[in-house]
Amino acid sequence: xxxxxxxxxxxxxxxxxxxxxxxxxxxxxxxxxxxxxxxxxxxxxxxxxxxxxxxxxxxxxxxxxxxxxxxxxxxxxxxxxxxxxxxx
Length: 88
What we know:
The protein is an alpha+beta fold. It is built from 4 helices and 2 strands, in the order αααββα. It is about 65% helix and about 15% strand.
């Protein structure tokens, strides 16, 4: 959410968390590798920007994942109900 408002440096991002600077950098690197963040060199600092259009891809993936998990939980409900009936 921080980057949805505007570009930030890793240090500025880290100030908002109780994690080490190294942990924040790792998260930033992963998000950049997934092309969710882009970086822009400004002098000696790197500013990270959120690629908001990538959030649509993530949302679509999450919807498919939710459908899959819902189907699996429905299947589990059927199995548990069968086990319950067999116990009686």
